[in-house]
Design a protein that fits this description.
Mean pLDDT: 94
Low-confidence stretches: 1-27
Keywords: Hydrolase, Metal-binding, Metalloprotease, Protease, Zinc
Distance between the termini: 63 Å
Protein name: Aminopeptidase N
Radius of gyration: 23 Å
Structural class: alpha+beta
Family: Belongs to the peptidase M1 family.
Pfam families: Peptidase_M1 (PF01433), Peptidase_M1_N (PF17900)
Helix content: 25-40%
InterPro entries: Aminopeptidase_N-like_N (IPR045357), Aminopeptidase_N-like_N_sf (IPR042097), Peptidase_M1 (IPR001930), Peptidase_M1_aminopeptidases (IPR050344), Peptidase_M1_dom (IPR014782), Peptidase_M4/M1_CTD_sf (IPR027268)
Amino acid sequence: MDHRALPRLAAPAVAALLAVTTGCTGGPVQGRPGASGLRDPYFPKAGNGGYQVEHYGLDLGYDPADGVLHGRAVITARAQQGLSSFNLDLSGLHVEGVDVDGEAARFNRTGNELTVRPADDLEKGQVFRTEVAYSGRPKALTDADGSREGWITGEDGAVGVGEPVGSMTWFPGNHHPSDKAAYDVTITVPHGYEAVSNGELLSRSEVAGGRTRFAWHSPEPMASYLATAVVGPYKVTTGKTPSGVAVYNAVSPEEAAASERSLARLPEMVEWGIGRFGPYPFGTAGAVVLPAGTLAYALETQTKPVYPGAPQDEALVLHELAHQWFGNSVSPKTWKDMWLNEGFATYAEWLWDEDHGGPTAQRHFDALLAGDTDVDAAADSGWDAFPPADPPGPQDISASPVYQRGAMVLHRIRQEVGDGEFFALLRGWAADHRHGNASTADFTAYAQERTGRDLTEVWDVWLYGKGRPE
């Protein structure tokens, strides 16, 4: 398909779409509007109510020379109520047309909400297909903590990252972690560029106009904040881990030499994670190393974490890999549950150290209590500023207590129940919630039931306690 023509419809279809954006349907309304937000504790307008997405089909065209993104999103969802209208999250970009189940739908934009009114009401339980044609120059967002996310452009490429809500800058959808779906992402770029997304590369083909089309497939459920699209002149290497997990690394050429050592250990880390946490949850693993300065942080985008330049520290690679189990496969129900991502991945770093001649998890724990930065550089990071299960606001969901004190919660469980029960708990949690969502309450109940121990003191002091634990 010619991506320069991708978002354009035939003239009669355009006329019909323009008509229905202002017209009214005549039949009686059987459904009601879906909610325009899921009332997340920190991002109440994120996501939408009334439906669950089953699959995203994204067909994207991007040329770094002009920075314009052409997109067609096909969203297959199931109505959870009778729907007279529903919302999609979309920031910026020009919507050129929307249809639902092949019929033109009325739509309007208010802020980051795209409200869609199908020609006929949707019944509860109905699977429906929404197609949105759109284009424009995507814009980055600035989060409450000052970091940038969304569609980030560089000198010769771009990357889409979405934690917590930035994915809405490059495709419409239900952008809350509680709604996970399978993805197929096709990206067409000028010849000489690589285009990378999540999952498995199904095909790479030359198309008209001196362009290359990359088709990526992610069959496992994925929260939209973990979706990525990366365009640039990357150096690609592939391989397999000893157990057969495919590895796909895309590295900015200027970062290749400095990345080689850390990425070389990725297959070993995958195998270690399998031993500690259970089967790897996805069909592929890998990494995308961006040109230095593109981002100010690494992100655990599903199957291929992105790094802001060469990952000099192997602990960072291990941390993002651990998220594939904790955060990506087992995803948070709300953004208040972030410690289930970051506390677990931080504890995975401690376990890697423990198993590879570094400080034990106990030494990391003691170092944080004692302020010993020689053992753990985060010892003076303010890890005790607030309880990890109750960050004060959206600007705090990536702060030190969520990471370090979250890891300390896990170590306190280990101290209480012993190694056998603790590691069985980690593996059971990853297995029993595989490809799902979980809350803090789900974890505390699971831990007590799985271990047969009363862990109330751990929760009261370490997980929810507002003072500095002793």
